[in-house]
Amino acid sequence: MNTTVRYIILTAMRDWLFVGIIFAIIAAIFFSNFLGSTVMIEQNEMKASFLSAITRMVLIVGMIVFICFNVRRSFENKEIDLMLSRPISRVGFIFSYWLGFSIIGIIVISAIAVYISFFIKSVNVTGFSFWLLSLIFEMLVINAFAVFASIILVSSVSSVLLCFGFYIVSRM
């Protein structure tokens, strides 16, 4: 199971997932600074609000797309068949995939936390920690659903669309 988790993390580094999401978060910082500077009062609070909403969407969309296309590519390259030939149960295999993607998400969330705490001047620690906790739980659920959808469905585009539909309905 540890080798599968390490393999998932290595594929994320190989596919430049961290760099892409970090650049998207930097763009979100500039965009939220621009939007926050347009208000008359409470500019820091608006910047924090915009930044938290944009980074949440960047994280969720990035993780859904990465998970669905990574699992589909693993099926097409017969990597999953090779992994399932080892003495690992199917439940353990799926759990290790979910755990690997969740570790990647937690690494990205910790980078988001550092960025937000660095760029926002007055952060309410209690509210910020509750927001981070809710973001972690939301990412864990979305990762589980994305792994499920990408294993069940044949097309990676249909699994991405199903995950987006699930996320939009769950956010309502």
Describe what is shown at a glance:
The protein has seven helices and no strands. The chain is an all-alpha fold.
Task: Write up this protein.
The protein is mainly alpha-helical and 172 residues long. It has helices at 2-14, 17-36, 43-76, 79-84, 90-119, 125-152, 156-171. α3 runs antiparallel to α7 (156-171) and α5 (90-119) packs antiparallel against α6.
List the helices and strands and how they pair.
Layout: H1 2-14, H2 17-36, H3 43-76, H4 79-84, H5 90-119, H6 125-152, H7 156-171
Attribute tags:
172 residues, mainly alpha, 7 helices, elongated
Q: Report the sheet-strand fraction.
A: under 5%
Q: How large is the count of helical segments?
A: 7
Broad structural category: mainly alpha
Query: How can the largest sheet be summarized?
Result: none
Oligomer type:
single chain
How would you state the average pLDDT, rounded? 87
| Rg, Å, rounded | 18 Å
